[in-house]
Amino acid sequence: MTYNNNTWLSLDVGGANLKAVHSDGSARSLSFALWREPDRLRERIESLADSFGSFERVALTMTAELCDCFATKADGVRHVVEAVETLVPEGCLRVWGIDGRFHAVDEVRRDPSLAAAANWLALAEVAARQVG
After folding, report:
1. Burial label, 25 (beta-carbon count in 10 A; 0-12, 13-18, 19+)
2. What does the alpha-carbon distance between residue 94 and residue 103 come to, in Å, rounded to a whole number?
């Protein structure tokens, strides 16, 4: 995979579906029962990402950490982050938080509760900007 400046892939990693939108406007969804095969998450994310053009950065939201295959939400957040961070060079992954801001991976590793089930807020933020 090659990287272009200022191109993004936005990922929403859920327990039953993986969703992605590229900065070129293309979007895809992939069914994936994470709770059945948590060890295949990285593989499935890479497959989805490879179906897009090149990108330099990744923006991440999630609810997958709520799956019962993880002992705790913190374990789930870390599992998702580890699966996604292989897509881009270090420092090029940002994780959306429940505080309405993007966070660096190290911040989320220290405090996984920042990112737990934050995807609803990301959607609300975008919708609010669209309607004013």
Report:
1. exposed
2. 5
pTM of the model: 0.89
- Residue the block writes with tokens 């997958």: 64
Per-residue pLDDT tens digits of the chain, which is 132 residues long: 444 468 999 999 999 999 999 999 999 999 999 999 999 999 999 999 999 999 999 999 999 898 899 999 999 999 999 999 999 989 999 999 999 999 999 999 999 999 988 877 777 787 788 887
Long-range contacts of 65-73 (CB under 8 A, 24+ apart): 65/112, 65/115, 65/116, 65/117, 66/15, 66/116, 66/117, 67/15, 67/34, 67/35, 67/38, 68/35, 69/34, 69/35, 69/36, 69/38, 70/38, 73/112, 73/113, 73/116, 73/117
